[in-house]
Amino acid sequence: MLQRQRRRCESTAMGAIVLDLRPGVGIGPFSLGMPTCEAFAQIEQQPNIYDVVHVKYLDEEPLKLDIVISFPDHGFHLRFDSWSQRLRLIEIFDVKRLQMRYATNLIGGPSTLATFVSVYALFGPTFPGIYDKDRGVYTLFYPGLSFAFPIPSQYTECCHDGEAELPLEFPDGTTPVTCRVSIYDNSTDSKVGVGSSMDKASAPPLPAGSLYMEEVHIKLGEELWFSVGGQHIPFGASPQDVWSELGRPCGIRQKQVDQMVIHSALDPRPRTTICGDYFYNYFTRGLDILFDGQTHKIKKFVLHTNYPGHADFNSYIKCNFVIFSSEFGGSFHQEVNTSKCSITPSTKWEEVKEILGGCGRAAIQTQGSTINPFGPTFVYGYQNVAFEVMKNGYIATVTLFQS
Fold first, then answer.
1. What tens digit of pLDDT does each residue of 284-315 get?
2. What are the transmembrane regions (predicted)?
3. Is the overall model pTM greater than 0.70, yes or no?
């Protein structure tokens, strides 16, 4: 796991913060289903509260485990599905560090112990929970919410057949204190607790017609086709065409220097020539569109996968592209997600080479060591397409152009 830590603000007062608890929905400003970029936007808005943030992921296989945003000072973390990059599970792992507000009542934090009896009194009657004998933990479930309680070994007989009388009190008059709270979507009626049951949590379904990570089908050298909205954006389209199809861009940026012109034997301009080309940035679609500064026609598309470990992580929402190889003989609009002749954000570089064949040596891209602590990436070119590949073999960006 890699961790990225933000600078602590020395003036921040330590102590439990208070966040509204919304079973099955979220906690505080964080809502189930939100993408990573929205979560970071909330963090940036309150830097004095969320002053220490760890980002954890599996560097070698970023699709294998969750992307986790953790707040160690406040005792909770957010788990994002690694493929969709949407929040699927919220875990409060240190209830004494975080005070939760449910309706008008407070629970947790250093002053209000989240005991079994207090939880049961606040949230009301529910069905008997599940006792995990191996972990010594009893989990109580409500819709979209669960509380885990450690059971001392001398009181395991209180949990007969994996259940217990509610509310749970031990023979000496004490009651267990919550060690973990989980908040998850309950539309699938899953019970999410500790251990392997955490894997049952999934992000809530996207609303009908949502454009989040819609499939963008690529016809190399010709056009992009957006599967939900049905828009077609061909090479050579004008800015007006793009506005009418995709709406206002999130940003417009001048391309200051064409760094690759030095590799072109046909272009005698010096490397430092100021370039009149400009980008339309569609951050919420994971897409950049480059226009020629003289003709004002599209000359390139740049598609972003938004993998952690890349310098642009969290600048774009993931682009869910599907690129068809030149050997693919089916219809452009045919559903071919499972075809071996398609390239998607999940396709690793070795698989790309199997589809498109080998290519020449890679150009090394560093983006400057001061702004990119993750090391260089490698750019490989084919006819009409170039792939920027990270050290772990996953695609970071795809650049489409006409040869």
1. 999 999 999 999 999 999 999 999 989 889 99
2. 102-123
3. yes
